[in-house]
């Protein structure tokens, strides 16, 4: 049985903050996604969608890092709010979509998903679609920006306030994460990723093996007892098609590669929760990136370009 059915209510939860980022503007991401028609787009596929509006939290104080972390108190406050909201939706049998905001918010959403999976006895798989590994620590990065640290914190390498958001911690083991589209990793961060054994499908791998093979590998082993969480950083996409992000990195997936990625995730029927983060309308062109994000999210929920009844797959 698929995780997503026409009767599974989808809950949109906005988290309008850029408190973990190095550039301002991601706080406007939730409204840009709404303006781009996310709710009616999903409803057009027969899905039931509830918009819970925006969470509230402290403003961005725009201060330098202290003790290796920038805006730690504010990041903790926002992630607690996200955790509680996501966990509440999962407890009701809903599929939550977090509208970010910067990628530090995934600490709250994934901590909530991990807590839910522990409670119901499900396995958890996280697909991290991003240009960056986000596996920095306070000793590896001089910026202290926490949007570069969420995967590390979720795996236990960070301040206790973030590692134990879900009551138990860490939320993740490295072997539960598959990173796709990576192409910008700091040298120290790269060593740390290798030490921890993260499974990374970087752009070199995608260039050599193709997106189809990449996704087959990343999705291998999913079964009916697996909750699939997708954390979609919009800078995953090539900036030629998605300019509205604060940390553009050339050489990302093309439109067709991204569509195939999303369609293959949809084919599993295991999607249980989603983050859409780092959309920065201040850097966009006529909301072009938000419209593309909505298009790709439609594909995550079943919109397909497949015309043939029986697709021929090469061995």
Number of helices: 11
Number of domains: 1
The helix-and-strand class reads alpha/beta
At CATH's second level, what is the architecture? 3-Layer(aba) Sandwich
Question: What is the mean predicted local confidence, pLDDT?
Answer: 95
Which blocks of ≥5 consecutive residues have pLDDT under 50?
A: none
- How much strand content do the residues show? 15-25%
Taking the sheet with the most strands, its summary is:
8 strands, parallel
CATH class descriptor name:
Alpha Beta
Please describe what this structure looks like.
This protein has helices at residues 29-35, 38-43, 72-91, 106-120, 150-154, 160-163, 187-196, 203-209, 211-219, 255-268, 288-300, and strands at residues 10-15, 49-54, 95-100, 123-129, 177-182, 199-202, 226-233, 271-277. Strands 2-1-3-8-7-4-5-6 form an eight-stranded parallel sheet, sandwiched between helices. The protein has a single domain, classed as Ureohydrolase domain (Arginase, Chain A, 3-Layer(aba) Sandwich). By secondary structure, the chain is of the alpha/beta class. The protein is 35% helix and 16% strand.
